[in-house]
Amino acid sequence: MMTQPNAVAGPSHTGQSLAHSDASIGTGTALTGGIGSLSLDAYLPPAPAPSRPHTTIHPTHDLLGRYGILPVYDEFVRPFTTSAPSGIEDKGKRKEDEADESRHGPKEGLFQHGYKAFIKDLGLGKHNHKKDTFLTDLMQMPEKQPVQVVKLDRTTLVHAFRLKEGGVPGVSPFYLSCIASHSAQVQHQRAHWRRQGAEEKGAWCCHCISSH
């Protein structure tokens, strides 16, 4: 008859280990349930917002209703868009122009004459301007080529600052004689005028002295 070997003597820990594992599982479940009750979403990143379809805005759309600002318009804008009382008469050139436009429609060619239509109500009077081509000429003008400065040689300096004997090349001697004679005549005439003026001045002074 065979007998089983005896177990090792000592305290048995099997029951304690099972109890400890059961307690750990219960504690983890309790903590998980507690954190879930405290909104676990607070520790997670927020979900991405849903993408809105891209729409094109057109001036014909109801933008006040689209953006929900119709009450603001009714409170702050609509009271000031009402027409003025009929008892108040608005006279003047500008009022006549507006009335003429209301009868015959907008003036044709208003924007075909430059910017005069935008400043006509400022009271600046006539504003005429001449067409200036300075900018066009400046843009079309060819660029100036840079000129390199060089040192003059000795031969050029000698020929440029030396006078040759004889007449001036390309100039007639008769022309020079006429200039000389004319200069002498002019000097003689000026001297005559000086003498005549001095005599008249002296006579006038003598007349003044004798009269006093």
Comma- or semicolon-separated keywords:
Mediator_Med19_fun; single chain; 50% helix; transcription; 212 residues; mainly alpha; 0% strand
Detailed description of the structure:
The protein is mainly alpha-helical. The chain has a domain at 174-212. The chain has helices at residues 14-37, 63-67, 70-76, 93-104, 116-119, 134-140, 154-160, 173-211. The radius of gyration is 56 Å and the shape is elongated. The protein starts with 13 loop residues before the first helix and ends with a helix.
Short description:
This protein is mainly alpha-helical and 212 residues long. It has a domain at 174-212. The protein contains 8 helices and no strands.
Portion in beta strands: under 5%
- What is the H/E string? HHHHHHHH
The coarse overall form would be elongated
Biggest β-sheet strands, sense, barrel: none
CA-CA gap between termini: 188 Å
- The whole-number mean of residue pLDDT values reads 68
- Gyration radius over CA: 56 Å
Number of strands: 0
Low-confidence residue ranges = 10-20, 30-36, 205-209
- Percentage of helical residues? 40-55%
Backbone structural class: mainly alpha
* Contiguous helical run count: 8
Provide the fold topology:
Elements lengths: L13 H24 L25 H5 L2 H7 L16 H12 L11 H4 L14 H7 L13 H7 L12 H39 L1
GO biological process, one term: regulation of transcription by RNA polymerase II
Organism: Thanatephorus cucumeris (strain AG1-IA) (Rice sheath blight fungus)
GO cellular component, one term: mediator complex
